[in-house]
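Researcher: Next sequence.
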Amino acid sequence: MASKKFKIKPISELRQDPVFGDWVLLAPIRGKRHEFRGRIKVKLPKNKCPFDNLAKFGNLPPVLVYPAKRGWFLQIVPNKYPAVGHGECSLIFKNGIYKSRPGVGFHEIVVLRNHDRYLAQYSSLEIKKILMAYRERYLSLAKDKCVKYISIFHNHGKEAGSTVPHLHSQILALPIVPPDVSHSINGSRRYFHEYKKCIHCEMLRQEAKEKKRIIYENKDAIVIIPFASKVNFEMRIFPKKHSAYFEEMSDSELLSFADAMRFVFSGIYKKLKDPAFNFFIHTAPSGKNHDYNHYHWHMEILPKFETTGSVELGTGLSIISVAPEEAALILHK
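Model: Next structure:
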């Protein structure tokens, strides 16, 4: 006699990222529903802030200044404590199985003038100016023969790695393509070679069809909660038009992208109670010596609610407790 079969509803779900190929584990039972905690607030008086008076605290002269009606709106200065610096980028040293090379490149800080404002309080036009500054420095740094990749990123809050609460972003020009970016580009290339289509464009088409994880869009940009989010409430902003290169965005496209960023930052601040977060731009490497046209540049925004534990560190498996579809309902306009 055949045994009776029982259908057991799984308590968790494994999802695979279509670009990276990595798996993430969605385990709602591990989290308390909608218990959002704001970031650790770090107050720094203006007279002790290294970014409120750049010259006073020994910062080098700015490489770019955007003026305002009174004073300046934004300055980009070389980082006083850079991760990379001047040197000969062609040197490679070998010691048995080990290989090393000098840490050559550029490390800059994008400083906003106002000491007490958060990104959520900036208008779309103001955020567009920030993007224009990113683009201007990107185009300048990309001319250097040593630069292979330019990373543009922002840390908000102590938990996200910010050591100074005054609003600032960073630009890091490297002589290599960093691992996560290579991973993303290789995944995009593999899909294109097999299907002759952009994996990110295909993802956006499916999201538009399912209408479960899109939280905002305008004529040029779209914001989604990824199907296989790496963290709770991860968001990604894509230009709707396929483009591999952030630096090729027009001014009007930057304004649409800035509008999408404003929506994201406002949602993080108001609906998630202002947690720490990181954002960064994933774009094709600088220079046109390789074919990166299969790639689709975008911005990733990662709120920080939990500390990485042994499971994540020991396995590389991200665990999230809020389903992307539920996150989309919370953050949708």
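Model: The mean pLDDT is 91. The first helix runs from residue 124 to 141.
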